[in-house]
Write a structure and sequence with these properties.
2 copies of one chain form a homodimer. Chain A is an alpha/beta fold. Chain A is built from 7 helices and 6 strands; from the N terminus they run αααβββαβαβαβα. In chain A, β3, α4 and β4 form a beta-alpha-beta unit. In chain A, the strands form 2 sheets. A 4-stranded parallel beta sheet of chain A has the order 4-3-5-6. Chain A folds into 2 domains: 2-56, Helicase, Ruva Protein, domain 3, CATH 1.10.8.420; 62-202, Dna Topoisomerase Vi A Subunit, Chain: A, domain 2 (3-Layer(aba) Sandwich). Chains A and B meet through α1, α2, α3, β2 and α4 of A and α1, α2, α3, β2 and α4 of B.
Chain lengths: 203, 203
Amino acid sequence: MANSLSPRIRKLSEALSRLPGIGPLSAQRIAFHLLSGEDRSEARELAHLIEDAADSVRHCELCNTLCEDTLCSTCSDPKRERDKICVVESPADQQVIEGSLAYRGLYFVLGGRLSPVEDRGPEEIGLEKLMKRLEAEEVKEVILATSFTAEGDATAHYIALAAARHHPGIRVTRLARGIPAGIELEYTDVATVAHALLGRREA
Amino acid sequence: MANSLSPRIRKLSEALSRLPGIGPLSAQRIAFHLLSGEDRSEARELAHLIEDAADSVRHCELCNTLCEDTLCSTCSDPKRERDKICVVESPADQQVIEGSLAYRGLYFVLGGRLSPVEDRGPEEIGLEKLMKRLEAEEVKEVILATSFTAEGDATAHYIALAAARHHPGIRVTRLARGIPAGIELEYTDVATVAHALLGRREA
């Protein structure tokens, strides 16, 4: 289909189609959109923002999330509760927890999960850094918020064991599994219902 | 939700969310994706491709589509039928016609459609350039392939009138309206069925 496409538009479309959630057709639509204005200021502005972020965004020394200073805004916020550390896989997951407005503690971003297939072991997810972090006297609880997939569960289990061994005094918890908000019971999968039953609480 | 996001990631997400088909959440996901690799080569490569395309892609002198030379690959292809010109709104629409493999003629890309609301008149869609193009002796037919919306229809109508006035010898046609391929009659809207009935052909 794209045989009459100019080489630069084709290369740009291909690069865009490798981004998450963008298929070949949307990639082509975005490429045409970026080149549609006469002055191409939107394209240049976007290129500049990507370059600028790639140059300046780094990892928080304490929690590993993406930020622009030595410490991220959460770690340097004196109003956060410093006795809790929520362990997430990615900055995107951290944003979801922040969006819930139900957590005021600190974070630790693994940058992935244990994966034998992708050759990612404890070192790649910064386990040592996390264990060092738990040495701080103030830490009372570690909340494991890795995904509820086989690899996410294995990662949580591994971290829980390591924490119990090195810091036996710290409480280690995992996010609750159960029925999602606003969902009819009828349409919930059986595994979720099983977890919701096992985790039932006083009404 | 994005209150703890670093300013550069926030700005990049905002710019990405202005691209067609990308909402705020996918924009944030793409921004995190671009900044996830340690060396950020994917981000830098994408910035470079956008910049490079913005610098080098221009409009074909003959048909107005996006290309990198004076003439686009279609206009300079000696195997294309030079007696037909298909008028489309955008390079993306041109790609769809090319994808059909049912057309071997040339093109003219308007770069939009007539729109009183958006203050786009005949000059903005290059009508004069198109009329000049029709002066070439070889042109026998103009196929109007603007969208079947109110504005697209008005644009086609306007071009048809101008062509009839300035080049009465040239045949002016419009894409057929009718039932789309692979669609059950039962699920087709009445306007489309009406057009299919009016445009019926010998079986």
